[in-house]
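Title: Comparing notes on inverse folding

I've been comparing how different people in this forum approach sequence design from structure. To keep things fair, I'm posting one structure and asking everyone to reply with a full sequence. Here's the target:
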């Protein structure tokens, strides 16, 4: 079964979309079969991905071949079922062949030498059916989250040659759709810049993931057996990824990351699944008061590379805009693959 990883942070502009695409592109380059899902209302990941299949604009994609269409379809299909319906007969979670064909038709794919990078585009111009609109509709029906779970399962099952990873680009704001992704995912990673604004919401973001599980566990119409039946265990943190790193960092940047690490220790976040050789344990160099022997920050960093700072070499923005894998993300991709072991 494909592993689901989401990338999120309460702060925008920290490299979530770039990281989602670049990790996916590098996975595909390494022979993995990868699907990208764009849940950000801005649709930036979709705008990148359509270039892989020579489509100029997401607005050119037929509405019935979009993520918006699938979300509304599954929301409508499952909004009326009850917890009792599912517990009495799990067949109610199965969809018909027509629905499965709609799912297959919504998937676009770019082949690599041994793997592929697939995506389902998100259109931002569909009135009353943009991602935020659909999240609001889902929030009105407690069983709407079940529809999203079944949709993800049907998408994964539609890949006849198998699928290794589903990577989800999440927006800064948490809504009903994003909460469903929290429940459905296996792992998550938080990209951040080493500044006060970008890191200030990281601990809160992780706390919200935990609170989502608690809330749905004790929510009478969903929690308990149904949550166990339809969703997964709480997703595991892969690590905090520092992006836009500059070789000449100010001492305050290192102190900020050290402080973030301390915050995560304070709220007792479960340690990342990345092995210790991938984590940064030298915070005491920058902060004598830092707590030792526990780190959430990945030692590997994504450097600030653009066309001006990297003379004679196109930077990450250039490669991402061209929907091409950049070697800067190759190592972090290998860390993810080694940590998960798929």
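Reply #1:
Here's my take.
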């Amino acid at each position: 079964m494909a592993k689901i990883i989401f990338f999120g942070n309460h702060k925008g502009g920290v490299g979530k979309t770039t990281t989602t695409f670049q990790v996916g592109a590098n996975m595909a380059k390494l022979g993995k079969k990868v699907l990208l899902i764009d849940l950000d209302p801005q649709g930036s990941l979709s705008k990148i991905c359509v270039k892989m299949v020579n489509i100029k604009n997401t607005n050119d994609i037929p509405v019935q071949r979009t993520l918006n269409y699938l979300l509304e379809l599954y929301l409508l299909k499952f909004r009326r079922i009850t917890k009792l319906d599912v517990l009495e007969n799990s067949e109610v979670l199965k969809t018909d062949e027509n629905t499965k064909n709609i799912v297959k038709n919504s998937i676009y794919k770019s082949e690599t030498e041994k793997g592929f990078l697939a995506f389902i585009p998100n259109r931002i111009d569909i009135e009353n059916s943009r991602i935020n609109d659909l999240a609001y509709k889902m929030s009105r029906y407690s069983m709407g989250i079940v529809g999203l779970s079944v949709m993800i399962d049907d998408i994964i099952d539609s890949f006849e040659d198998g699928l290794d990873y589903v990577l989800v680009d999440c927006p800064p704001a948490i809504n009903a759709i994003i909460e469903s992704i929290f429940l459905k995912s296996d792992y998550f990673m938080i990209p951040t810049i080493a500044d006060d604004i970008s890191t200030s919401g990281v601990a809160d973001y992780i706390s919200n993931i935990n609170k989502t599980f608690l809330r749905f566990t004790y929510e009478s119409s969903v929690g308990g057996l149904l949550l166990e039946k339809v969703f997964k265990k709480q997703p595991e943190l892969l690590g905090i990824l520092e992006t836009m790193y500059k070789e000449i960092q100010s001492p305050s940047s290192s102190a900020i990351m050290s402080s973030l690490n301390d915050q995560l220790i304070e709220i007792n976040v479960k340690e990342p699944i990345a092995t210790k050789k991938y984590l940064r344990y030298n915070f005491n160099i920058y902060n004598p008061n830092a707590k030792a022997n526990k780190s959430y920050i990945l030692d590997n960093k994504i450097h600030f590379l653009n066309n001006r700072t990297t003379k004679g070499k196109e930077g990450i923005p250039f490669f991402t805009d061209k929907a091409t894998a950049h070697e800067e993300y190759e190592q972090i991709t290998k860390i993810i693959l080694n940590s998960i072991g798929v």
